[in-house]
Amino acid sequence: MLVRPKALLFDFGGVLADTPDGRSDWLPALVQRVTEVVGGALSADEITADVTAGRRAYSHWRDALARTPEPEELTHERFWADFVAADWPADARAAVAAHATELVRIWIDRGSAWQVRPGVRESLELAREAGVPATVVSNTLCGAAMRSFLDREGLASLFAAQLYSDEIGIRKPNPRFAHLALQALGGVPADAAWFIDDQLSRGILCARRAGVATAVHVYDGPAPSADPGPPVASDRPPARAGEEAAALGHSANPRYAPDATVPTMETFRDLLAAALA
């Protein structure tokens, strides 16, 4: 149901901003810093292999957590100590745990590569003119990097609040994520809010669980199929894996079905303008 919104909850990646494909220069920098942190206890090749395996394991873990009612986020320390360095010498494992926040920032902070999606700034300005507060609600291991990006782009002032999973300790689709965001906006009731996300199995399901009035899916890929099959390829986002592919394949299920789907944030801006008219 497209109600006139009294609050807007925006996902970050795939909604507010995109990262161009093919950017991988963060990995050598990360491996070099980890090598320094562990004092040469492991080779660059060993570190590269375990960082790559840890990221893959984290991706599978996120898919699995999307099936649970109240998923929590990993701490920076647990990601490095358990997902990356589980089989490293004890001193090396302790060292990366002690530097976990710094190392996560190197991995996630691709602010120079993120690009604000067309239509985002106009949507936020339209909301501000109408007196509708907005917040960021994003699953991430480093919300600080996203805060910095939005500040550099001059967008931070257009948000009344920003909530990131590593900072609040829970992940979408945990409905408390939406409830905390609405509280941060002054206690706007869920049945008067919009939730804008590109992930059915995270954001849209979070909106459903939290009782948010309008769930808007930002998606420009192929039409959902009854058979989810392999990861779904799309221009934006580049791939859908695991739980999200299954959610796309069963998007008629009311748990996943959005109230509206828009291919671009420019289209979203038009949808928002019509609802505010």
Automatic annotation (TrEMBL):
Q: Looking at the record, which segments are called Disordered?
A: 221-259
What is the organism of origin for this protein? Luedemannella helvata
Q: State what protein this is by name.
A: HAD family hydrolase
Instruction: Provide the leader sequence positions.
Output: none
Which residue stretches, if any, does this entry annotate as coiled coil? none
